[in-house]
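User: Could you go from structure to sequence for me? I need the amino acid at each position, not a summary. Structure tokens:
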């Protein structure tokens, strides 16, 4: 299956998860496209000053892969800076937040996979 950039659904979410600014969500594939239980497979774009607020993942794991820019990640209270090529895995009830820590857009791939028995979003 191929997902062409001009055909992907794009939405802009203000103050995503209580964060600052706007986050652009470019849906690469829909949950129904997968045979496995996947809730999200998207490219996220956060302009300078934008963030995704602290949130918890129950019954699912989330993977972030930074593709452009600098990020400040808060993972269960610990803060660290990330750059292109860095990856994050969170889940099992863990909380995290991410913010653009630079002066260019922060871009990352985000994939959320569900545990057995969970429903797709």
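Assistant: Here is the amino acid at each position, in order:
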């Amino acid at each position: 299956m191929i997902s062409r950039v001009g055909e992907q659904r794009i939405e802009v979410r203000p103050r995503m998860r209580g964060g600052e600014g706007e986050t652009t969500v470019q849906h690469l594939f829909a949950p129904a496209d997968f045979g496995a239980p996947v809730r999200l497979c998207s490219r996220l774009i956060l302009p300078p000053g934008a963030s995704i607020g602290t949130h918890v993942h129950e019954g699912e794991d989330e993977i972030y892969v930074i593709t452009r820019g600098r990020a400040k990640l808060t993972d269960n209270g610990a803060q660290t800076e990330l750059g292109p090529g860095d990856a994050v895995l969170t889940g099992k009830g863990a909380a995290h937040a991410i913010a653009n820590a630079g002066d260019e857009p922060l871009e990352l791939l985000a994939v959320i996979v569900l545990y057995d028995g969970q429903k797709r979003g």
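One structural detail worth keeping in mind: The chain has one domain: 15-114.
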